[in-house]
Write a structure and sequence with these properties.
The chain starts with a strand and ends in a 21-residue tail after the last helix. It has helices spanning 97-102, 116-120, 123-133, 139-153, 161-172, 179-186, 190-200, 205-222, 229-235, 241-252, 256-263; strands at 2-6, 16-33, 42-46, 52-55, 61-63, 67-70, 78-93, 113-115. By secondary structure, it is α+β, with helices and mostly antiparallel strands. Strands 1, 2, 3, 4, 5, 6, 7 and 8 form an eight-stranded antiparallel beta sheet that branches. It is built from eleven helices and eight strands. It has a domain at 2-153: Jelly Rolls (Sandwich).
Length: 284
Amino acid sequence: MQLRSWRPIARLRTFVDHFAIRTASMGSNQKYHPLPARNDCFLEFYLEDQFRVINVASGAIHLAPRVVLVGPHARRREDIIHTGAIKVFHIGFTPTGFYSLFQIPARSIANLAQSAEVVIGSSVCELEEKLAVAPIHHWRSTAEHFLLQRLISSRTATAGHLTARIAHSLLFYRGALPVSELAKRHGRSVRQIERIFEDHVGLSPKLFSRIVRLQAALRMGQRESAPDWSALALAAGYFDQSHMVRDFRALTGETPVGFRRLQHRSLPSSIGDGMSHLSYRRPC
């Protein structure tokens, strides 16, 4: 799979972390991709075949919406299968970016992956239609124009600055700052910090911190063919390997070794058979 990513123009960098395009021609081959807990929010446009989504609890399979909004997730709920012709445009928001641009409390989209039209409205379908007919090298500028219009019309585009600073601190320190210290630094009570963080980010600051550590451990593990889990745990900010294993079980449903095995899982071609691929000309 080919991946290209870009930073947005300066005016959008408070709200948008990156744009990305993923492309692949997989034919009937299938790649399993487990989705751990995550602290970010993003929009994805499936401009060729849609991803197949597996409910972790039930094993049921369904097609993702043509334009999907994925909120922050407190645990692994659904995994995806890559197959067919993949052409995906991704808009990754900063921790407070979606709330600021769309004036929608982040707690209302937490733990959900749903049709973006249901949450944002028909304007996101209009953007999908423009992307579908635009050359691929124009996708970023097309999306930036859409988001700049949202920025102009937004009444809350500066309301998340305190939360953004808190999120930045948690990311910088890999989740090592306690909430009490954050409250003291910003002159707020612990409960005030928790409430605004859940409204603007969709997670509690404590859970956000745990996911920051998890994501750091996952990135480190991916760089090694045979990870030293004990050393990796300390490098990612855990007290010890047992602490990391407990968090992995809570946030991915697996041990570190078990989740790594899922990442390399091979699938029989029969999984998902009978599910039709939808044309990008269908409504989102």
